[in-house]
Amino acid sequence: MLTDDPHHPKNEFHNLKEIAVFSPLSDEAIHLLEKGRKIISYKKNHPIFMEGAHPTGIYCIHSGKIKVFTLGETGKEQIIRIASKGDVVGFRAIFSGERFKLSATSLEECVISYIKIDVFIEQIHTNLILLQSILREIAKESGARAEFIKTMSQKTVRARLAIILLVLEDIYKEDMINLTREDLANFVGTATETLIRLLRDFKDEGLIEIHGRKIKLIKVKEVYHKAEY
Amino acid sequence: MLTDDPHHPKNEFHNLKEIAVFSPLSDEAIHLLEKGRKIISYKKNHPIFMEGAHPTGIYCIHSGKIKVFTLGETGKEQIIRIASKGDVVGFRAIFSGERFKLSATSLEECVISYIKIDVFIEQIHTNLILLQSILREIAKESGARAEFIKTMSQKTVRARLAIILLVLEDIYKEDMINLTREDLANFVGTATETLIRLLRDFKDEGLIEIHGRKIKLIKVKEVYHKAEY
DNA sequence: CGAAACCTTGATATACTTCAAGTTGAGTGG
DNA sequence: CCACTCAACTTGAAGTATATCAAGGTTTCG
Q1: Of A122, A127, A134, A145, which to mutate for an interface test with B (greatest number of B Cβ within 10 Å)?
Q2: Which of A86, A94, A128, B187 is deepest in the core (most CB within 10 A)?
Q3: pLDDT tens, residue by residue, A58-73
């Protein structure tokens, strides 16, 4: 699953420049990071990191989607974010000096660049641009989470479903939203049964189309407005 | 309300060293920031900044408490945080390049240091220690907010009240918790009436004592465990 | 082809909200 | 210092969104 052979085929075609936080970096800086990274492929439903563990590196997504979530006492997941191509996951804890507060699992086959913490930290200490870019990223994340808190506490499940669908539309782009009902429920923060009933309502009202597991938005945007998670 | 006269009595005794994010800085760096700051006093219930506005500076609390919140469509506040001595509020948006996503209002008489955005940014560009300290702070904040999301979506109002009381105990320290029922409800994310009924339950069960508006925790910790907001 | 995971529907229970009305308390001006 | 007023607090009653429990159907995949 791990490879650090620079001639391994998987190591081609995955430029770190395509990772959003790294895009402001010079080619030189990108190259330094690439020297220290490993390309990893994950199968569907593979755990990437777990809450409570100490971070050992960061994970840059080249392809596939990853759910980032936290487990409640009863074992129920609350999904905080679905990360996709160009995103980095697992680096907040490094900067706060904490353990992971969240877990991450692949939702599909994924290819990621894994950058060890010491390689990364070294760059952080010498590269102001990188540090600023990361600060910007985490600041945005924190703002998004404040909005999510409000949504969770003030919106009905129905409104939350609409909002989450709009968020997911941006993530799945031209593809249809493709999550298990349980994952979708765990993102919306509701019971699976409730989610299913609401999806049916949305379908009956012509807001969405349902194609098996996949969901296509028709006029959700007209009724609800998106939040930025 | 504003003064930049260095001999004004209010400008004495308020060292920025007592602000947590600035504590790792050299005396020299602290001094540079202090040269550019203004000391401001706010009366109780005075707005400090409002969501939607462009940030113009940061607010470092020397004394008093400030609620940081966001307004729902119906005008209901969701309190995200109660900031107190040593905290800085209003600086996340600066780093994400956004407008304020949250509003802030004083809960008591407050004395703060206001540092203009350009003075602050200048320091950021030249002081790696400061940048790292801020990154650390925002990373912690983001982690705390992820926990809050889980709490909001998975815990009952009763459990949330207990958790928030424990959080507030840390903020009010030796003082008793002193918030209006409405503010407390807006932090817990519930209706004021529900909050009042639950407080009565807690009192009847011997978990808390109620002294007018003030609340003293007796054995909340034994029944619930605190989250880190 | 069989088992397991996933999905769906129905029935029931309840935590919480909302509305309404009354009480208490805090701050202000005379 | 008292009285007045507005905000804050409290209780009750009624309605509802959502969770939970139970059971059956369907897809997926080894």
Answers
A1: A145
A2: B187
A3: 999 999 999 999 999 9
